[in-house]
Design goal:
195 residues; alpha+beta; Immunoglobulin-like; six-stranded mixed beta sheet; five-stranded antiparallel beta sheet; 3 helices; 32% strand; disordered N terminus
């Protein structure tokens, strides 16, 4: 019994000494590529070795610290390093290609998958799970386009979409802050990715 009472304060002190979690880091550190050489620059998989296009718009780095702090105050377990400049359809089309700081890491794109987190109405500290019944299906486009599909209609609002980009060489991930709008129409098949 005495050992337990001595261990508890020691354990508490150790837990307090653990470095801050990702939510406590500034966005510039959270999303910075590592300083390794060659393809090892890509192993943290925060999207620096692929290019993602959603409804014809390329994802861009999320640099606004206030927005990033607000998004990361909600627990979803992802480093959200990317965003879109405009809202997109709840039936969006997405495509990807190898790119960024070491394009050959991913190689030729074979598949995209996605996890979807609805931020609208979530409070800081609240833990979110990915929505069920939402995913990507191949769109039949020869350029390798995937369409977001959902068992239930997605509501208008702010979401984090976590894309996993699988290629012939390896994979990368982009967590993208987006505004989805069911009133918007996705681009026609074949027009979802810029040429």
């Amino acid at each position: 019994m005495r050992t337990e009472t001595r261990i508890a304060p020691l354990l508490s002190a150790l837990l307090l000494a653990v470095p801050a979690f990702s939510a406590d880091k500034p966005q510039s550190q959270r999303c910075a590529p590592n300083d390794a050489q060659g393809e090892m620059k890509c192993v943290n998989r925060n999207g620096h070795c692929a290019e993602l296009t959603i409804d014809g718009m390329k994802s861009v780095p999320l640099k606004d610290e206030a927005t990033a702090a607000r998004v990361h105050a909600i627990k979803h377990g992802e480093d959200v390093c990317w965003t879109l400049s405009k809202p997109v359809s709840t039936r969006l089309r997405a495509s990807a290609k190898a790119g960024g700081i070491f394009p050959s890491f991913v190689g030729k794109i074979e598949k995209l998958s996605v996890n979807v987190y609805r931020l609208e109405g979530a409070r800081p500290g609240e833990r979110l799970g990915a929505l069920t019944g939402v995913g990507l299906t191949a769109d039949g486009d020869p350029g390798g386009v995937w369409r977001l599909s959902s068992e239930k209609p997605l509501a208008k609002g702010e979401y984090v979409l976590v894309f996993r980009i699988f290629g012939s060489g390896n994979w990368d991930r982009q967590a993208v802050l987006v505004s989805l709008d069911p009133e918007l129409k996705p681009p026609p098949a074949g027009k979802a990715s810029p040429k």
